[in-house]
Design goal:
By secondary structure, the chain is mostly helical. The protein is built from three helices and two strands. It has helices at about 5-25, 50-65, 65-75; strands spanning about 30, 35. A two-stranded antiparallel ribbon has the order 1-2. The chain starts with a helix and ends in a 17-residue tail after the last helix.
Length: about 90
Amino acid sequence: MVDIVTICQYHEVMKQRSMRMSIGSSKKTAGPDGTETGGKDVSLQVMVPMRIKREVSLRAAQEGATQRTVILRALKAIGFVVKDDELCDKRKQR
C-alpha cells in the first residue's frame, strides 16, 4: 500500500528532475514567483468560435495592438503572471 509520504516524495523528485531538464536544455530559469524567466515565445493554438476571433481581431485593430497583446492582457486580467515587457509588440519594424 502506498502512503501519502511516498507520493509526496515521488512528486518532489519528479519536480526537481523536470526543473533540471528544462534548465539543462535551455536558458530558462525559475524566478522568485516560480514562473520561468528568459524563455522564448512559443506558438499556442486554440479553437475558438468565429465570433471570438473576430472580436479579438477588431479589438486589436481598434487599439493599434496585436492579437497577441489583446490575449496576454486578458490572461493577465484573470490572474496569469504576464510581465509588462511581454505585452510589447514583437513584430519587426519596417
